[in-house]
Design brief:
Largest sheet: none
Shape: elongated
Structural class: mainly alpha
Distance between the termini: 81 Å
Number of helices: 22
Radius of gyration: 25 Å
Order of helices and strands: HHHHHHHHHHHHHHHHHHHHHH
Helix content: 55-70%
Mean pLDDT: 92
Low-confidence stretches: 1-8, 223-228
Length: 381
């Protein structure tokens, strides 16, 4: 493996890699020699960071390389360019990001890895570029893996994604700006809002991966068990998301309902309804839930889901519908819809998904809703 370590210093790798990446953007037809050299350098950096089967990585060499990557702004260039690289190099870049963002030098006084601190506080454009990787099927999955790792390491990563509204080649929003403006109201043009079309309109693998990251951004990850190892981080992340959705309630749910809940894609529709139920039933989102279930329009969308041809859509829709019916403080519009449709609901619900005989919780909840609807008073005038 000696040929992999021909540079005198591991820091020497960062500068030629940067130069080759810049050439990749400047030339419409980069030479095969330049492409091969770039592939070699990226592979070499990965091996220095993670070691080999026979040799462990050297902390001193890793520190040199990570510092050089920061100084040469290579983290940004890799995030920006990953879609242009061959398949194996894209995988290598994913590993480079993963190791760089976790590496802490020995005897460091900081609690955070230096690359993570640099990106969060001084180069948030790296985070935004990783998100924009979803715009291209070549970069969607490697960028998604890195983003989810970052989101689990630092709640400020979620804050940057949620609040940034920069355009291509513009400076991204800084954490200081977010805090100074107390989380500005959104226009719907920022990088977070691009997740809606990436989920609804992307190729299947892009859509699925984007939705997985979307869940993590909203602190509703399937892998929440890993996050609970740092309960304080998870709590802060949930509080951040709750405030954000409250501030941008109409914009968020207009997009969510029109692009995700009413998506023509079965997978997107089903997983979005399930996520909506989880959002509404999360204790951290109590204010969001009470505002959501006040809307008669939201109830109409939900009741339409109960009549869908696909049973799993009906089932997930039921778990949102029950929040409206179980709410003891129903708004007049919600009361009117439920009372005006009482007879139809009482005919419909007893046989609704009646084949779920082994799901005792579902059966009990359905019986409870029937009793609630039966006992409702007259519709408000």
């Amino acid at each position: 493996m000696a040929f992999l370590f021909r540079h005198k210093s591991k820091a020497d790798l960062a500068k030629p890699t940067k130069e080759l990446l810049l050439q990749l953007w400047q030339s419409s037809t980069p030479t095969q020699k330049a492409e091969d050299e770039l592939v070699r350098l990226v592979a070499q950096m990965k091996l220095i960071l993670q070691g080999t089967h026979d040799t462990e990585s050297s902390p001193e060499q890793v520190a040199q390389l990570v510092n050089a990557m920061i100084q040469e702004d290579l983290l940004y260039l890799l995030a920006h360019s990953i879609r242009l690289l061959p398949f194996e190099s894209r995988k290598d870049c994913q590993s480079i990001f993963s190791y760089a963002f976790r590496f802490k030098p020995a005897h460091s006084l900081s609690a955070e890895p230096p690359a993570l601190t640099h990106v969060v506080h001084r180069r948030p454009e790296v985070i935004v570029e990783l998100c924009r990787g979803y715009g291209f099927k070549e970069s969607a999955m490697p960028c998604g893996v890195v983003l989810r790792e970052l989101l689990k390491q630092h709640e400020d990563v979620a804050s940057i994604i949620l609040h940034d509204e920069s355009r291509e080649n513009q400076r991204a929003i800084s954490i200081d700006d977010i805090e100074a403006r107390d989380g500005p109201i959104q226009t719907g043009e920022g990088v977070f809002w691009n997740f809606f079309p990436w989920i609804d309109g992307g190729a299947f693998e892009v859509s699925t991966d984007a939705f997985t990251t979307f869940r993590v951004i909203l602190a509703m990850s399937d892998t929440e068990q890993t996050l609970t190892k740092n309960q304080e981080l998870l709590t802060r992340h949930k509080a951040l998301v709750a405030i954000y959705i409250e501030k941008n309630f109409e914009l968020f749910f207009n997009r969510y309902n029109s692009m995700l809940i009413q998506s023509t894609s079965y997978v997107t529709k089903r997983q979005s309804i399930k996520l909506l139920g989880e959002i509404l039933l999360d204790r951290a989102n109590y204010s969001i839930m009470t505002q959501y279930v006040e809307s008669g329009e939201h109830l109409k969308i939900c009741m339409t889901l109960l009549k869908d041809d696909r049973k799993m859509v009906q089932y997930e829709g039921f778990h949102v519908f029950k929040v409206f019916v179980a709410n003891p403080n129903k708004s007049p519009p919600v009361q009117r819809i439920l009372v005006n449709n009482r007879e139809r609901l009482l005919r419909f619900l007893p046989t609704f998904l009646e084949d779920r005989t082994e799901d005792e919780q579902f059966t009990d909840e359905k019986s409870f809703l029937i009793r609630q609807i039966e006992s409702m008073g007259p519709a408000p005038s």
